[in-house]
Amino acid sequence: MTPWGSTAEWVDLLDSQVPQILALVIETWDKLPPPAGNEREDPVTNRLCSALQRCPDRAAYPFRIQPQAVILEPDSGDELGRLDIAFLPFVPSDEIYFCLECKRINVRTENGIRPYFAEYVRFGMLRFVSGQYSGAVRHGGMLAFVLDGDVPAAIVGIQDNVKMQHRNLGMDAPGELQTSTVLQPEPRVRETRHRRGQSPDMFVIHHLFMAGDLHARMLPEPANASPLPRKKDEQRRSRRKTRK
């Protein structure tokens, strides 16, 4: 045992903090005003992170809370991605963290609801499975901002997309969103289990579905906005988050 503990002990320490991290996120979200029905991801994420940093009894939680934490490629120093919200326990390793990747789904538009279920899997879950995020730990989190407020429908929509992608996600068929084993009973939380490369440990993604309000205001769209994301815009966003 080293003076500061071993890597395995740090990973175990992070595992022990997962239930209180999830509970803190839910408790904090429930105290925030609902986001606008078409609000962008970053402003909602930043408000939530700010509230988490100012939560009551903040000193009792043994981790730092940091928005937009940058991950660097070890050899080149290139930016591999940015963690939307990172929970960093007080250990001497930059690889030990709980990442909460935020995605908005069921976004309200003038032409109806835009689900973004496929994007949740492709630009969220797969980053954990590939090891781009949380490569040295056993747990990560996905936070869905359900902007139309319909959490049960959102869970079904994500479930259907996970089933279609279960092989790419390293999951056993049929690819189920399971009841949480660390936070029960909580109908807004699910978990999925994944195999990653040669690691003998299963990686667990904890899915939090946080409801907006169907009657929340809508923000004005830019004059040149399109109800559907343009391909170039999505490619630019992907490059910004996965630059190699």
Characterization of the model:
This protein is about 30% helix and about 25% strand. It has about 240 residues and is α+β, with helices and mostly antiparallel strands. It has one domain. It has a seven-stranded mixed sheet with strand order 1-2-3-6-9-8-7, sandwiched between helices. A hairpin with a 2-residue loop joins strand 4 and strand 5. It is globular.
User: For the largest beta sheet, what order do the strands appear in spatially?
Assistant: 1-2-3-6-9-8-7
- Give average pLDDT, whole number: 89
Strand runs, count: 9
State the low-pLDDT regions, or none.
226-237
* Approximate shape: globular
Structural class: alpha+beta
Between the first and last Cα atoms, what is the distance in angstroms?
Answer: 35 Å
Helix amount, in percent? 25-40%
